[in-house]
């Protein structure tokens, strides 16, 4: 199959969260299954320079703009990448979505509408390239207009839209809808209108042949009012076309036996390197060198989704327990300040780093004993899977992909060799404290703890299975496509 995979970020070129991990690894896994894949991204300032062998593939004029598409090679990978480059749109410093004050760029609607238009033109083979996709796979609201625009064509490739996070919908005022020159009939709740606003994500949810999200549990949750953000009715209406496929992890990047960002390697046959990584972590975080004290790690966007406010609330009580914290994150300014203040008050037990640091993220996964993820909702979550793979026992809420990957520790699940972590059973700080205490009690029993670690490390979260499921999804999308292209044969 020829697959055009469209996303607004992809590791290692550009990453702000899990979407970057997925868009960096799923296309490659599909390539390894023998598919013909192109990854298409906006040409952010830092991205162009990283591509190997870049060349201009096509030039367009779009909405009075000259736009070029540059083709290059993903660093150290056979994957072909297309970058959409339009002067003034993407070549600016900093984050793909936010300005230096942490506010969304004022022209995000124009930027990602242009990106989606270019995805559409390339998908319809309007660049005169000798390559037309069978499948256009779009991800999150930034690509949401593409399935809608493609549906205007009399014939088109099949479309798949993946929801990585329903909380981000790409909502803009009505006048943006008019400014973008979208078909007037789309100003309807049957199309892109959402409570008098323009919704980019509805382009994907209404028009894609197939919709999926990144875990089976989240696929069910978003059809309820609690997790659906007002879109649950539409998602229920489309439930026959909606499914959940758990993300994989890229074991080229995330494997304690070979991770190039670690000083000490280890695997499930010999965990001694993990202890050495713990010592490194305590040292770089400025925590006392205490080999037998449990270290709890966290790497996160600091937002309410991730339950960071619950951690802050619980912290004074948690810090009375025999443990240390190594936290890395950035996001909400108030949460950043409160965490830093707590770290100042309790320097022996709590170390906080604000910012984005890929190396430190790997060192926390390897050096911590436990990983805390009290998310209120979690479409999939990658860090609990990295943690399981690194023998770092996760303590998580039972939502979304966390519920699909973490099995709570009890006498029963231990006896069945299924236990691999701890579940926080409700959305409050006392439940969080209770789960941490349960984990600490088990931590004292070294043999039992090692059983939890090994159960996690033995699980296979590699992309192979999930990439195969995407192939089946693509076939279903082709089957459902009412406007399919004529069979070339
Ligand atoms: P989300 O996409 O909702 O942020 P995920 O668990 O799917 O959550 O993925 C988050 C990814 O971003 C992980 O690879 C994690 O290690 C990484 N990450 C998050 N914050 C930071 C940070 N401050 N520094 C380095 N990596 C980070
Ligand atoms: C989103 C979700 C996260 C998921 C990631 C990749 O950012 O918040 O749960 O793992 O996308 O799919």
Describe this entry's structure for a reader.
- The protein has 489 residues and is an alpha/beta fold.
- The protein folds into 2 domains: 2-248 and 464-484, Glycogen Phosphorylase B (Rossmann fold), CATH 3.40.50; 272-459, 3-Layer(aba) Sandwich (Rossmann fold), CATH 3.40.50.2000.
- It contains 19 helices and 18 strands.
- The chain has helices at 18-32, 45-48, 108-123, 145-150, 174-179, 200-207, 216-221, 225-228, 232-237, 272-284, 308-318, 333-345, 358-367, 383-389, 400-405, 411-415, 429-443, 446-458, 463-480; strands at 2-6, 36-42, 52-62, 65-73, 80-85, 135-139, 158-163, 171-172, 193-194, 197-199, 210-213, 242-244, 294-302, 323-331, 350-354, 370-373, 393-397, 422-424.
- A 9-stranded mixed sheet has the order 3-4-5-2-1-6-7-11-12, with helices on both faces. Strands 15-14-13-16-17-18 form a 6-stranded parallel sheet, sandwiched between helices.
- Strand 14 (323-331), helix 12 and strand 15 (350-354) form a beta-alpha-beta unit.
- Helix 1 (18-32) packs across helix 19 (463-480), helix 10 (272-284) crosses helix 13 (358-367) and helix 11 (308-318) packs parallel to helix 12 (333-345).
- The longest helix is centred in the C-terminal third of the chain and has 18 residues, at 463-480.
- It binds adenosine-5'-diphosphate (ADP) and alpha-D-glucopyranose (GLC).
- Adenosine-5'-diphosphate is lined by residues 17-19, 21, 299-301, 328-330, 356-358, 361, 380-383.
- Adenosine-5'-diphosphate binds next to helix 1, strand 13, strand 14 and helix 13.
């Amino acid at each position: 199959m020829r697959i055009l995979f469209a996303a607004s970020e992809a590791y290692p070129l550009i990453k702000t969260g899990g979407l970057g991990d997925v868009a960096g690894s799923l296309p490659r896994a599909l390539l390894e299954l023998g598919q013909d894949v192109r990854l298409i991204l906006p040409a952010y300032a830092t991205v162009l320079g990283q591509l190997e062998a870049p060349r201009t593939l096509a030039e367009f004029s779009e909405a009075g703009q000259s736009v070029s598409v540059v083709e290059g090679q993903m660093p150290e990978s056979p994957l072909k990448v297309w970058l959409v480059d339009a002067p003034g749109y993407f070549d600016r410093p900093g984050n793909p979505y936010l300005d230096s004050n942490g506010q969304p760029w004022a022209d995000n609607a124009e930027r990602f509408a242009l990106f989606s238009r270019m995805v559409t033109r390339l998908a319809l083979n309007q660049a005169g390239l000798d390559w037309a996709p069978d499948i256009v796979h779009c991800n999150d609201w930034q690509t949401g207009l593409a399935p809608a625009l493609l549906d205007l064509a009399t014939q088109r490739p099949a479309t798949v839209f993946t929801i990585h996070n329903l909380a981000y919908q790409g909502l803009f005022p009505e006048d943006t809808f008019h400014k973008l020159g979208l078909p007037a009939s789309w100003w309807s709740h049957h199309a892109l209108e959402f409570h008098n606003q323009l919704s980019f994500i509805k382009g994907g949810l209404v028009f894609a042949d197939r919709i999926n999200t990144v875990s089976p549990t989240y696929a069910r949750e978003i059809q309820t009012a609690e997790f659906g953000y007002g879109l649950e009715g539409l998602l229920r209406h489309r439930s026959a076309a909606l499914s959940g496929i758990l993300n994989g992890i890229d074991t080229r990047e995330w494997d304690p036996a070979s991770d190039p960002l670690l000083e000490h390697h280890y695997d499930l046959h010999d965990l001694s390197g993990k202890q050495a990584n713990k010592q490194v972590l305590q040292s770089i975080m400025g925590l006392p060198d205490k080999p037998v004290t449990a270290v709890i790690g966290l790497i996160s966007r600091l937002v309410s989704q991730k339950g960071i406010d619950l951690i802050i609330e619980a912290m004074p009580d948690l810090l009375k327990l025999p443990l240390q914290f190594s936290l890395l994150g950035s996001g909400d300014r108030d949460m950043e300040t409160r965490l830093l203040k707590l770290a100042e008050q309790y320097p022996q037990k709590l170390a906080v780093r604000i910012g984005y640091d890929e190396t430190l993220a790997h060192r926390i996964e390897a050096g911590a004993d436990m990983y805390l993820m009290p998310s209120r909702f979690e479409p999939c979550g990658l860090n609990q899977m990295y943690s399981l793979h690194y023998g770092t026992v996760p303590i998580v809420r039972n939502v979304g992909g966390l519920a699909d990957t973490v099995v709570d520790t009890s006498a029963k699940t231990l006896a069945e060799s299924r236990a691999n972590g701890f579940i926080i059973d409700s959305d409050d700080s006392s439940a969080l404290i209770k789960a941490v205490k349960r984990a600490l009690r088990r931590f004292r029993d070294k043999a039992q703890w090692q059983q939890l670690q090994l159960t996690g490390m033995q699980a296979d979260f590699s992309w192979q299975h999930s990439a195969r499921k995407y192939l089946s999804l693509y076939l279903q999308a082709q089957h459902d496509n009412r406007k399919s292209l004529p069979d070339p044969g």
